[in-house]
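USER:
Working in pairs, take the chain set out below, taking as long as you need, and write a paragraph about the fold.
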Amino acid sequence: MIMVELSSAPSLAVLYPKAVLTGFRRRGGELPDTVYTLSGVTVDRKHLAAYNRVCGFRLVDELPLTYPHLLTYPLQIKLMAGRDFPFPLVGSVHVANRITRHRPLHLGDRLDLRVHLENLRDHPRGRQFDMVGEVLVDGEVVWTDVSTYLRRGGGTTKAERGEHAEPPPSTATWRVPDDIGRRYGEVSGDRNPIHLYRLTARMFGFPRAIAHGMWTKARCLAAFEGRLPDAYTVDVAFKLPVLLPAKVAFWADERGGGWEFGLSDARTGKPHLAGEIF
């Protein structure tokens, strides 16, 4: 792998237009073997508080499990906007996310970030790949994030179709406002047009703006605050998008020393997210 040390976080305002304008040139191929690193990152207290408010976490100095994803996100987009990345950024669908934390992270920690791509593979609906982000403290990996993306098209087999299983009884019902995509986009930097407005979402085939998958994961984890250990893994699959505004049902079931949980449409029961904590 080729290690590239960055001196500052890449600008998403620059990278997004670049990725959109050059996406039509991408025709598949192998993943780049570049590893981007950024050292000595500290967390801004106001930014952490804004994130916690949007996602439903308490205002404390400990970083929520999902927060470091925001720190690595500009490095991820820099990889996906590079001329050697084989797929257009727009249209690459975030289908799953797994985060492992080996110990809590706090505001005073100095964090080193590392991001790379791996595991390009076939999928019934196209190709999948993993974006891997890591946070190190004093040379030790303390947090790992694996985001799986699907690029539709060129699949070699037909996708399997099945009925949605009936979810367990909900433990909470949440109303998701129509501006949550804009609010999360403001704090995360992820201003993909499918999350912002009805009109911009329609340009990409959605009837209304949709919530960010990582917001739905964070909002579910906020419901577990005070009940999780210092070290754990949360693995989720993103199912049907949450069309905004929405009314969603959250359920959680303690099993085998961990948890299973999910988010579904409160009216139809169709799943938005399925996850487990272990």
The longest helix spans residues 67-81. The domain at 1-154 is CATH 3.10.129.10 (Thiol Ester Dehydrase; Chain A). The mean pLDDT is 92. The first strand starts at residue 2 and ends at 6.
